[in-house]
Structures
1.
Amino acid sequence: MNIAIFGAPGSGKGTQSAKLIDEYGLYHISTGELLRDHIKRGTELGRTADEFISKGQLIPDDLMIRILDDVLDSEAAAKNGVVLDGFPRTIAQAEALEELFRKRGTELHAVIGLEVPEEELVDRMIKRGQETGRADDNIDTIKTRLDVYHSQTMPLRDYYLKENKYIPVNGIGIVDEIFDDIAAGLEQATGVRRRAKKR
Ligand code: AMP
């Protein structure tokens, strides 16, 4: 099963991805984490990525798609399927993704959309910035990231609704309860059931 977790910055994609990989044995691909790791290591890609990330802008599609193509080649990604966290973020990326999966004989099965009101997103990102020191979680960059989300990423909601792949989930509340809704939505959409609850 290949799924994408979709939502505004601060909507809880990372938190719910961790639960998804644990529950379904999927491989986590977070494009944001991958890029931050390159920045930390000071690679050439990291230097390019930093120019965009620090301004709250998206990395160019062709570069991002090439990176994803490489990651999907890893053995771990091919095994049980993946959780894409932060990709696709543009229609061009979504179209490319279809082709990347198609050439590997698979497809994107579902897109989980974490829906969270804007005020809550800002509060969460400010808090995360204070707790983790994440450089782009500052008020100016947050504003740009939300604008970018509305103009470039939000159209994907309709794109995947039309493809019958979009599963809306209320992203406000207790982490485990949000995950219960995700698991129920996935079962309904794909027939894949979660493991029996541990006691
Ligand atoms: P995230 O951790 O998913 O919030 O991503 C942090 C930053 O990394 C974003 O604000 C973008 O600058 C960059 N980024 C992550 N994923 C993508 C993507 N799919 N396309 C373009 N830029 C991305």
2.
Amino acid sequence: MKIITSVRKMQAWADQRRSEGRCIALVPTMGALHAGHDALVRTALSSADDVVVSIFVNPTQFGPQEDFNAYPRYLDEDVEILGKLSSRLTVFAPGVGEMYPADIEADRISVDVGDMSRYLCGKFRQGHFEGVATVVLKLFHACRPHVAVFGLKDAQQFVILSRLVRDMLLDVRMVGVPTVRAADGLAFSSRNACLSPGQRKAAVVVSQAVHGAEEAIKEGEQRSEALVEIMRSILRREDDARVQYADVVDADTLQPIKEILPGQHVLAAVAVYFGGTRLIDSVFTQAPADQGIEKHDEES
Ligand code: AMP
């Protein structure tokens, strides 16, 4: 399998493939690959001729107090896993100097994601989504994909990057892959490796919380306050769970909601700490359409 570490070589490779009429899909990752990444790569393989998996732990999306240095890095193992998957895969694993040639501190140009970073994770991770949008734009310029595949697990990221593509007129088709979960429901995450066995067991409440909210929405609960309480009460079952947020927002704008409208697409999301490990989970769902008018017609 080909491993490319330089941006110029990556661009030359992509140009060559494009000139041959081949469709390129990109799967951006920070490595430490797991079953969630595997689903993304398989989706990419079924959507394009060639797939580039980028492995880059992006410093600009980590805050000063966050786990950039402690983030798991297993490049050799990742390359071995990918090598077994398909001969149509190429790994792009640039160093920080390749992606930020003027050095991180000296970088002056970055992507502003507007008020979409004010809610959910963005509220607690200042600069995170600007860092994500900036590095993804750079990855698009380096890898020149036709298709980009992301996980819906990082729901706010997916919504913001879809807006980046739309607003900046990027010629890239966004594909979202549903969250891949362990048997007990916990979403796969590179950070799960940082949980103690006890925390790992307790972490099941994270997915239970968002699914609890989803169920209540489907049953007609419209009040955000009630939905937040459902999520929080599930998370309270575990003493180790420290909730950063539990929220219900509009799925397109990420704006907070007081009362869900009939048929509205919403996102129920949580971020929860177990010790120093922060886990997120979310579900996109749609409120039932208003049955009232139909009922009224039937009655009259
Ligand atoms: P990361 O390496 O954590 O930055 O994730 C790289 C990509 O994998 C992102 O698009 C994530 O949303 C996606 N991803 C991570 N975990 C999962 C999962 N459990 N299911 C589906 N996609 C995932």
